[in-house]
Design goal:
The protein is an alpha/beta fold. Helix content is 43%, strand content 19%. Strands 3-2-1-4-5-6 form a 6-stranded parallel β-sheet. The longest helix is centred in the last third of the chain and has 23 residues. The N and C termini lie far apart (41 Å). Bound molecules: ligand NAX. The site of ligand NAX has 28 residues, from helix 1. It is an enzyme of class 1 (oxidoreductase).
C-alpha cells in the first residue's frame, strides 16, 4: 500500500474549505488509490468550526482518509506537507484600498511561505486560491527561498472551466469536445480567456464562433465577471465550483494533461510570451510526471496581445506594490 500524502488546507473552516475537504478525502485530489492525511490550518476563531468539519469527515468513514490534524500554528500545519492548498485569505472589505488588501494578505502569505519553507516535504506543491491569488502566491514564494519557485502556483482553473462552459453553451458543443483553451494573466477582471488556439471537436474554436464582437463584448466579460454574477445570484461567492477547480488544478498537475490538450495555471513566468520573469501569471501549460511546462510557440494575434499585456501590466503593478510594502 502507498504511503499517505500529507495535504494541508488553510481556511479549512471557510465555505471553499467545506466543499473541498470531502473531495480530497474521497480521493478526487490525487486519485482513487492514494491515501491522505489532512492538516487543517485555521485562525483561532476558525478552529471550532474546523473541528466540526473534521467530525463530519470522520462520519464519512472514507477509506482513503488516514488522519486529520487541526491547528492554528502554520509550522504544525505545514509539517511534512506534500500538497498545500492556501485558501484562507483576507477578503476586500468596504473602503479597503488595494495597498491595504495587499498588506493584509502579506501578513498571512509571508509567514505561511516561511512555514512551508521550514517545514514542508521536499516535494511540496502549493496552490494559492485565496485572493489576490497570483500576488499572494508571489508573496509566499518569495518567503520560501529553499523551495523551487515553480512549486508555487495560483488558481485560474475556475476561470478556465468557466470559459469552457460558456464556449460550450454558445456553440452547442459538449464540454469534453473543447480542448486547448487558455486563461492568460491575472485571476481578476483583467484576465484573458483565449479561444484562438482552442479546438472544438478538432476545429479551431475562433473559426467556429466567427464573431469577434461576441468574444470582446460577451464571452470575455462573462467569464471575467462570473464571480460577481455568482455572488449576485447566490448571495455568497463561488464555493463548490472553486473547490472543484482546486481539485482539478492539483489533479492535473500531479497526474498530467491529456495528449493533445493543455490547461491553465498561474505560475512563475520564465519570460515566455513577453510576460516579465518572476511574476505569477496564468499560462497554457502541459503537465507530466508532476511537472508542468508552458506551451511554447503559439502565435499571439493583436486582439490577444493587447489583452495579455493589460492583465500582465496589472500583475506587474501588484508586484511593485508588494515590493514597496517589503512583502517580497
Ligand atoms: P471564507 O471567508 O468562507 O473562508 C475563509 C477562511 O479562511 C475562514 O474560515 C477564515 O477563518 C480562514 N482564514 C483567514 N485567515 C487565515 C489564516 N491566516 N490562516 C488560516 N486560515 C485563515 O472564504 P471562501 O469563500 O472559502 O474563499 C476563500 C478565498 O478564496 C477568498 O480569498 C476568495 O476570494 C478566494 N477565491 C478564489 C477564487 C479563485 O478562482 N482563485 C475563486 C473563489 C474565491 O472567491
Amino acid at each position: 500500500t502507498r504511503t499517505p500524502v500529507n495535504v494541508t488546507v488553510t481556511g479549512a473552516a471557510g465555505q471553499i474549505g467545506y466543499a473541498l475537504l470531502f473531495r480530497i478525502a474521497s480521493g478526487h485530489l490525487l486519485g482513487p488509490d492514494v491515501p491522505v492525511n489532512l492538516r487543517l490550518l485555521e485562525i483561532p476563531q476558525g478552529l471550532k468550526a474546523a473541528e466540526g468539519t473534521a467530525m463530519e469527515l470522520d462520519d464519512c468513514a472514507f477509506p482513503l482518509l488516514r488522519n486529520i490534524e487541526i491547528t492554528d500554528d502554520a509550522n504544525v500545519g505545514f509539517a511534512g506537507a506534500n500538497v498545500a492548498l492556501l485558501v484562507g485569505a483576507r477578503p476586500r472589505t468596504k473602503g479597503m484600498e488595494r495597498g491595504d488588501l495587499l498588506s493584509a494578505n502579506g501578513g498571512i502569505f509571508k509567514p505561511q511561505g516561511k512555514a512551508i519553507n521550514d517545514n514542508a516535504a521536499d516535494d511540496i506543491k502549493v496552490l494559492v486560491v485565496g485572493n489576490p491569488a497570483n500576488t499572494n502566491a508571489l508573496i509566499a514564494q518569495a518567503a520560501a527561498p529553499d523551495v523551487p519557485a515553480e512549486r508555487f502556483t495560483a488558481m485560474t482553473r475556475l476561470d478556465h472551466n468557466r470559459a469552457i462552459s460558456q464556449l460550450a453553451a454558445r456553440t452547442g458543443a459538449a464540454v469534453s469536445d473543447i480542448k486547448r483553451l487558455t486563461i492568460w494573466g491575472n485571476h481578476s477582471a483583467t484576465q484573458y480567456p483565449d479561444i484562438f488556439h482552442a479546438e472544438i471537436a478538432g476545429k479551431n474554436a475562433a473559426e467556429v464562433v466567427n464573431d469577434e464582437a461576441w468574444l470582446a463584448d460577451t464571452f470575455i466579460p462573462t467569464v471575467a465577471k462570473r464571480g460577481a454574477a455568482i455572488i449576485e445570484a447566490r448571495g455568497a461567492s463561488s464555493a463548490a465550483s472553486a473547490a472543484n477547480a482546486a481539485i482539478d488544478h492539483v489533479h492535473t498537475w500531479v497526474n498530467g494533461t491529456a495528449e493533445g490538450d493543455w490547461t491553465s495555471m498561474g505560475i512563475p513566468s520564465d519570460g515566455s510570451y513577453g510576460v516579465p520573469e518572476g511574476i505569477i501569471s496564468s499560462f497554457p501549460v502541459t503537465t507530466k510526471d508532476g511537472k508542468y511546462e508552458i506551451v511554447q510557440g503559439l502565435d499571439i494575434n493583436e486582439f490577444s496581445r493587447a489583452r495579455i499585456d493589460a492583465s500582465v501590466q496589472e500583475l506587474s503593478e501588484e508586484r511593485d506594490a508588494v515590493r514597496e510594502l517589503g512583502l517580497i
